[in-house]
Predict the structure of Zinc metalloprotease.
Amino acid sequence: MQTILAFILVFGLIVFFHEFGHFIFAKRAGILVREFAIGMGPKLFGMKKGETLYTIRLLPLGGYVRMAGEDFDQIELQPGYRVGLILNDEEKVEKIYLNQSVRHPNVLFMEVERADLNKKLWIEGYDEEERLVRFDIARNAIIVENGEETLIAPYDRTFEAKSLWHRTLTIFAGPLFNFILAFAIFIFLGIFQGVPTNEPIITEVVDDSPAAEAGMEAGDYVKSINGTPVKKWDELTDFVKENPGKELSFIVERDGQQVELSVVPETVKMENGEKVGQIGVMYQSPLVKNPIKAIGYGFQQTWEYTLLILQALVYLIAGNFTLDDLAGPVGIYQYTGEVAKHGFFTLMYWTAALSINLGIMNLLPLPALDGGRLMFFGIEALRGKPVDRKKEGMVHLVGIVLLMILMIAVTWNDIQRLFFQ
């Protein structure tokens, strides 16, 4: 149960922020958002608020924001359709009933001759007395088919009608909000768990080490080495590593007084053959709860995790790819359960790392991903006109198929690793 709840929290938070990025920028651009979905597949829960249907779906494979004007969104009334019309006080059509009997005292039946539900908003056809009539359609008119209501989308409210800049922002906002989520989580951790100070304070001195022989003690605050000021623990370790076997003059602060110590780092040979210095001290950074430092910590951690994931990605692209290096929903579920055992704060670090990972993966210029769509926007900017929608749609369709094949392979590998090893 703990693993299930942890997975729902992590998955839900990451997907929600990603899709919320798309959603909020689509709304700001004036695009009609038909559905905001968390998960894929059959609907478990749905709530209609305003123009948008908010749903939670069965399969934890992502989510989506369905915008007017995208593929499979167009509604067309073909000649010969028999429809029922309801007019508003301005004699404009506010409801169009398709393929069903209508019980309404003011319904007008029509056999459609022509219609424009997208740009000019009108419908023309023959009434029950076989007269050719024409009505304007309200911008907020509703199509009712088999009991399902769908709001029409005037062209200016569709995704494709918006400027290249607004379309780019709407797509880019999903990955962007994943980075924002990670940044916010790191700030939260910095405020409530504390920010490591990284100060050069000796926590422990190893027995019989060069530091112990020189008289260094736990609690010593290193101020300088060979006259060079030291402000961070990383600076101390770098100085020591670079000077194996060389005598170093340490100035440390102890009980309010400065003490000078001479330490000769031991020479240690690494696996790659490199020789580095070690003096035998250990460090555990104290945590400081400071909101201002927490903001800087948020930037630092987001940047460092981003670099780490990018390095791993370059490693995979360089030819070191195996299925064991990837994890699908099953693998993430397993790892989330293991991480959750170490407490809430550790789970939040894991959530931030996954959010950054999702943001980076979605920015890759691959078909069907946000990065693939941004790539086509880049081509549009260079050409001065959009790529043919059918051709772009075919590229994305192929990308979806390939991604699904990869997802199935990764998921099967996760299942084998989890249950059969």
About this structure: Residues 5 and 421 are 25 Å apart (CA to CA). The mean pLDDT is 89. The chain is about 40% helix and 25% strand.
